[in-house]
Structure formats: C-alpha cells, structure tokens
Automatic annotation (TrEMBL):
<dbReference type="InterPro" id="IPR029056">
    <property type="entry name" value="Ribokinase-like"/>
</dbReference>
<dbReference type="GO" id="GO:0004730">
    <property type="term" value="F:pseudouridylate synthase activity"/>
</dbReference>
<dbReference type="GO" id="GO:0016798">
    <property type="term" value="F:hydrolase activity, acting on glycosyl bonds"/>
</dbReference>
<dbReference type="GO" id="GO:0046872">
    <property type="term" value="F:metal ion binding"/>
</dbReference>
<keyword id="KW-0418">Kinase</keyword>
<dbReference type="InterPro" id="IPR011611">
    <property type="entry name" value="PfkB_dom"/>
</dbReference>
<dbReference type="GO" id="GO:0005737">
    <property type="term" value="C:cytoplasm"/>
</dbReference>
<protein>
    <submittedName>
        <fullName>Carbohydrate kinase PfkB domain-containing protein</fullName>
    </submittedName>
</protein>
<dbReference type="GO" id="GO:0016301">
    <property type="term" value="F:kinase activity"/>
</dbReference>
<keyword id="KW-0479">Metal-binding</keyword>
<keyword id="KW-0808">Transferase</keyword>
<dbReference type="GO" id="GO:0006796">
    <property type="term" value="P:phosphate-containing compound metabolic process"/>
</dbReference>
<dbReference type="Pfam" id="PF00294">
    <property type="entry name" value="PfkB"/>
</dbReference>
<dbReference type="InterPro" id="IPR002173">
    <property type="entry name" value="Carboh/pur_kinase_PfkB_CS"/>
</dbReference>
<feature type="domain" description="Carbohydrate kinase PfkB">
    <location>
        <begin position="7"/>
        <end position="160"/>
    </location>
</feature>
Length: 179
C-alpha cells in the first residue's frame, strides 16, 4: 500500500544559547563586560523539528522552509549545521524549500544568566515572509498529495489561508503549530 508523505511548512532556525557560567554584574554605562559562558548551537524551528522527528520515525516527509545562502544555509555546502542534522534521513526532502541570498538563515540567540533568561533575539520573520502565496501555489502539488500538512502558525494569515485552500481542495488533513 502506498503511504502518502507528510508535509511540514514553516521555520528552520539555528538556535544559539549562551549560558553564563558565573554570576553576571551590570556593566557601567558605556562599557562592555565579558563573562565566561557555555555556548551551544542547536537545530530548531517549529516545522524543522517536526519534519526531523517524523523522518526519524521512518515517515516520508517534505519540508517547505526558507534558508539564507550563508554559512548556516548554503545548500552547496553539504555539511552546514542544519543540514548535517539530517544526514542519513533519506526520507526527509527539503529540496522544495526557498533558498535566498537576500537574508541570512533564521537564527535565534538567547542569553541566560544564573538568574534565568536575560535577553532573546530572533531574525525569523524576514525570512519566513519570503514564503508567500505564490510560493505556496508553486508547491501546491506537495500539499495536494500529502496525507497531512503541518503548518507553522508564524506565517502571515494570507499564507496560512493559502496552504489551507490547497489542503481543503484535496482533503489533506492539516495541523497548526503555535509557538
């Protein structure tokens, strides 16, 4: 029996976490202070996380996301950080994703002290806005042939509506992910 693939549409993010290893002190005005820290880099993003999990369960999955053509997203460098996480996952196809030189791969940086989260920064919105209704229309066959589609709710409403339009026309089940 032919099993229809799953489609995950949404963010793929490089998460950088800075964990202070000692108490931090407030800097004097105009000064920069440096503190010992543990810095971790992880693969993240709502749709990317779900696509990887499904693929690791042996399920065929197509990921529609957006990547900047930079050190974290150059599709011609097979060992870049996000793609390296998928090595050996033959059933995860991200070839339908958008690759653009106009902005960098989505990245989040969190800075935590012994007291907890101090600051968080993210640049995902500019990149996700590159996936517009036309891009969804160009990939409509993936949605129409899918068993179900997982949608990252961080998209503009018009894009979510367009995904649902194609899913409803073909009776593809849909699941929304709110972050």
């Amino acid at each position: 029996m032919y099993e229809r693939p799953k489609v995950c549409i949404g963010s793929a993010i490089v998460d950088i976490e800075v964990l202070s290893t000692e108490e931090t002190k407030e800097s004097k005005k105009g000064e920069i202070s440096y503190f010992p820290a543990e810095i971790k880099q992880r693969a993240g993003g709502v749709a990317r996380n779900h696509a990887e999990a499904l693929a690791r369960l042996g399920i065929d999955v197509d990921l529609i996301s957006a990547f900047g053509i930079d050190l974290n997203g150059d599709k011609d460098i097979g060992a870049t950080f996000l793609f390296k996480k998928w090595e050996g996952l033959e059933n995860l196809d991200f070839s339908h994703s958008l690759f653009t030189k106009e902005c960098s791969t989505a990245t989040s940086v969190s800075i935590e002290s012994k007291k907890g989260l101090q600051q968080g920064f993210i640049n995902v919105e500019v990149l996700l806005n590159k996936i517009d209704c036309k891009f969804i229309d160009d990939n409509a066959n993936l949605i129409k042939l899918a068993d179900y589609v997982v949608i990252d709710a961080n998209f503009p409403p018009s894009v979510i509506e367009r995904v649902l339009y194609w899913a409803n026309r073909s009776e593809t089940k849909s699941w929304y992910l709110f972050d």
